[in-house]
Amino acid sequence: MTTMKIGPTKSEDIPALKMIVEKTELFPSEMLPDMLSSFLSAEESKDIWLTCEDDRTAIGFCYAAPEPLAEGTWNMLAIAVSPPKQGAGVGAAIVEKLESVLRERGHRVLIADTSGTDPFRQTREFYRKNGYTEEARIRDFWGEGDDKVIFWKRL
């Protein structure tokens, strides 16, 4: 049995993370290097990128950023796990690590936005299973018939 390792994302993780993004269809994978650039190059970056590795291969990641104008509130803007590893606790371990890092830094709240459509039913259930509360729903936010569902957790 291998042990998962979760730590800050490194530039050498990008190729594997791009594959995860493509397989999960989270967002266009060509956006990933630009999204990561300030985190990887700036010591003062406030964003958090975490990568989960199994046998030195990236199998999942998350990205979180502080909410502007809010005190101690963060938004988990992306989380993805390689499809063959989904359902094995990888996502829960990544979220637990993110929450731990934020607590250690004195932050209070973590939110996560997702879609209210049927293809995102498992995503919403994932947040519920990990202690998040559906705090708000904005109708037709992402598009006609596609609500924005906001999950909330006190850290």
Describe the structure.
There is one protein chain. It is built from 4 helices and 7 strands; from the N terminus they run E-H-H-E-E-E-H-E-H-E-E. The protein has 155 residues and is α+β, with helices and mostly antiparallel strands. Strand 4, helix 3 and strand 5 form a beta-alpha-beta unit. The protein is globular, with a radius of gyration of 15 Å. The mean pLDDT is 94.
Annotation keywords:
4 helices; globular; alpha+beta; 155 residues; seven-stranded mixed sheet
Structural class, by secondary structure, is alpha+beta
Order of helices and strands: EHHEEEHEHEE
The dominant shape is globular
Mean pLDDT: 94
Major beta-sheet overview: 7 strands, mixed
Strands, total number: 7
Quaternary: single chain
Brief synopsis:
This protein is of the alpha+beta class and 155 residues long. 29% of the residues lie in helices and 37% in strands.
Q: What layout of secondary structure does this protein have?
A:
Elements: E1 5-8, H1 14-24, H2 32-41, E2 48-54, E3 57-66, E4 73-81, H3 90-104, E5 109-115, H4 121-129, E6 133-143, E7 146-154
Parallel strand pairs: 4-5
Antiparallel strand pairs: 1-2, 2-3, 3-4, 5-7, 6-7
